[in-house]
C-alpha cells in the first residue's frame, strides 16, 4: 500500500462514527419506517442510465414514505480526505 493510500484510510472507529453521526441521519432524513420495506438494487455499466433509474425508483418510493439511497458516490464528501469544493 502506498503511503498516501495509508494516510487516507479511516480506522474502524472513524468509519463507524461517520456512518452513525453523518451518513445514516442524512440518508434517512424525511423517511418513514415501513411495515413492509422494499429493497431495489440498480446496477449496470457506466453510462447505462443507473442514476436516472435510481431517481425514478426513489421518486416512486417517495410516494410510500420515502427511500434511503445508498451509493458510494453519495458519501465521498463525508471522508475527511475528500477534496472540498
Q: What features would you describe in this structure?
A:
It catalyses: UDP-N-acetyl-alpha-D-glucosamine + ATP = UDP-N-acetyl-alpha-D-glucosamine 3'-phosphate + ADP + H(+). The chain is built from 4 helices and no strands. The protein has helices at residues 3-8, 12-28, 50-62, 72-75. It has one domain (3-78). It has 85 residues and is mostly helical. The protein is globular.
SSE topology string: HHHH
Helix content: 40-55%
> Which structural class fits the helix and strand makeup?
mainly alpha
Q: With helices defined by DSSP (H or I, 4 residues minimum), what is the helix count?
A: 4
- The rounded Rg comes to 16 Å
The shape is: globular
Arithmetic mean of pLDDT:
82
Sheet with most strands:
none
Proportion in β-strands: under 5%
| First and last CA, distance | 27 Å
When the domains are counted, the total is 1
Count of extended strands:
0
**Low-confidence segments, ≥5 residues, pLDDT <50?**
none
List the helices and strands and how they pair.
Layout: H1 3-8, H2 12-28, H3 50-62, H4 72-75
InterPro entries: P-loop_NTPase, Zeta_toxin_domain
Keywords: ATP-binding, Nucleotide-binding
Domain Zeta toxin: 31-83
Amino acid at each position: 500500500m502506498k503511503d498516501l493510500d495509508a494516510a487516507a484510510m479511516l480506522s474502524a472507529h472513524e468509519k463507524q462514527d461517520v456512518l452513525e453521526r453523518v451518513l445514516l441521519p442524512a440518508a434517512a432524513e424525511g423517511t418513514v419506517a415501513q411495515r413492509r420495506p422494499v429493497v431495489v438494487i440498480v446496477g449496470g455499466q457506466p453510462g447505462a442510465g443507473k442514476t436516472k433509474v435510481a431517481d425514478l425508483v426513489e421518486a416512486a418510493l417517495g410516494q410510500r414514505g420515502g427511500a434511503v439511497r445508498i451509493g458510494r458516490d453519495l458519501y465521498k464528501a463525508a471522508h475527511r480526505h475528500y477534496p472540498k469544493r
